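Quick one before lunch.
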Amino acid sequence: MKLIENWFSERYSENLQLSFRVSDQLLSVKTDYQRIDVFDTYDFGKLLSIDGTVQLTEKDEFVYHEMITMFPYYYAERPPRKALVIGGGDGGVAGQLLSLGVESITNIEIDNQVVEVCKKYFPDLADSFRDPKVDLRIEDGIKYMKSSREKFDLIIVDSTDPEGPAEGLFGLDFYRDVKEKLSPGGIVVAQSGSPFYQPKALKMAYNSARSVFRNSIVYTAFIPTYPSGFWSFTMSSDDKLEPRGTNIEPGKYFNSSILKGAPELPEFVKKILSE
Ligand code: AG3
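Model of the AG3 complex:
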């Protein structure tokens, strides 16, 4: 008989948390940047947490990874051929880009341990790093943006929340550097937090993006294991942002109606963006 129940909880506030019952804790390491934990949960499969916040679970990672790659992919005027991923040390974004046929992917992850942990516990995602089309570099994304001379058709910022190492990825300075790295008509997209619980994160990303780019749109997706289950992404370009509606290959979440509908925002989110 099992006497003890184990739970992992992400704390949203003093008064609120989301808890997963776990059958096992597979790993807990403190790296130079953050704490990484892997749990085996009953309902969502393996779960990766960084500094106590859910990064992905086996069961629902597809929503986030499809929406941060397929969505901007089908907004680009021409199919993007060269992409840059900032963060994304689990390999999920790189994997989606490969499935879309992107020819060259540079992936800049600050924490080597995230990559190592994901190779071991989430091989379905991290195996994308074995593909020769993916150039994985362990480097600070903010510094890379300042030093590199390369240009990209699509830049994807797959970061943690704007606390700790990722904070600078939501700021104006970073977006100025991003603009320099985009080829003509290029698109940048970033995860921008839960509009309900993290309106500041969304505001920060949106305001930074808007000060630098001619066009920015916010779109949302349903991600059950992230705070409030309702998540935002901010996408920008100096070119017009319009869906390129042809030959859409649906994913498990993404399809042509989501491409049209995801930028439709509830009133409280519009309010955050206009304040
Ligand atoms: N990166 C975004 C995770 C943000 C989650 N925040 C939270 N749980 N408070 C996900 C990495 C997946 N490639």
